[in-house]
Write a structure and sequence with these properties.
Layout (H helix, E strand, L loop, with lengths): L8 H8 L5 H4 L6 E6 L6 E8 L4 H10 L5 E11 L2 H15 L5 H21 L1 H12 L2 H4 L4 H15 L5 H14 L4 H13 L1 H9 L6 H19 L1
Parallel strand pairs: 2-3
Antiparallel strand pairs: 1-3
């Protein structure tokens, strides 16, 4: 029997309030997550269903920022939703499984990363948004000694190389994220980004085999979907 944990809408709002529009949070925490911790070095595998705002790469990078580097994750919903509740659920499940605490600083930074990347993705595309944030992670040891104006210039340079345009508001949002990321273990973040880039093909192969989890996982999600269908029908 797989252990089950519940994330309430109040927990989601406490984690995301002020970072994401209320309409994306919604009135219920509907997105659900299955997580299996893997051996060190196996990387992160993400598979989503009925999630239309958070992409697999957005989840992956946010989890790496939170210190979760080796896990197999499935995220789903009974119908199409943004997927913001799943991140809160992943933190909770990971801590329960491993007994390891994810610090508030790591949670705050990774949550903000997910939101900022999601907002950027709507404007410049998911791949470009993810790449932009990853490239900034690789120079965090340099941005620590830069003024906001100098960081803004670096952001504009990366955006130009990606062939995208950012508004002043976008840049300020990214600078705020950079300042939060600088307070974490920068060396670890940079190593994770490099591993993320070089392991893309291997991780994709893992994604393709994720359906081999077996009947327990399938039944787990069926139960969740049936539950929400009953709740929404009342």
């Amino acid at each position: 029997e797989l252990p089950e944990l519940t994330v309430t809408i109040d927990e989601e709002r406490a984690r995301l309030g002020g970072l994401v529009d209320a309409d994306k949070i919604g009135s219920y925490s509907l997105s659900c997550v299955f997580i299996r911790v893997l051996d060190e070095g196996e990387g992160i595998s993400i598979n989503t269903h009925n999630i239309d705002w958070c992409t697999a790469d957005m989840y992956k990078n946010a989890l790496i920022t939170a210190g979760i580097t080796d896990a197999e994750v499935m995220i789903t919903s009974p119908y199409v939703v943004s997927g913001t509740a799943a991140l809160t659920g992943i933190y909770k499940a990971y801590e329960d499984i491993t007994g390891e605490e994810i610090t508030e600083e790591e949670k705050d930074a990774s949550t903000q990363e997910l939101i900022v990347t999601g907002n950027l993705a709507e404007l410049i595309g998911s791949d470009e948004a993810t790449q932009l944030i990853n490239e900034l992670k690789l120079i965090l040891d340099e941005t620590r000694n830069m003024s906001d104006e100098e960081v803004a210039a670096e952001i504009s340079k990366i955006a130009q190389n990606l062939g995208v345009s950012l508004t002043d508001s976008d840049i300020l949002q990214i600078i705020d994220l950079v300042r939060k990321l600088e307070k974490l273990d920068v060396s670890k973040l940079q190593d994770s980004v490099i591993n993320f880039i070089h392991a893309a093909e291997r991780i994709e192969n893992v994604n393709e085999s994720i359906t081999g989890f077996g009947a327990k996982v399938i039944n787990f999600f069926k139960k969740i979907i049936d539950f929400f269908n009953r709740m929404l029908a009342e």
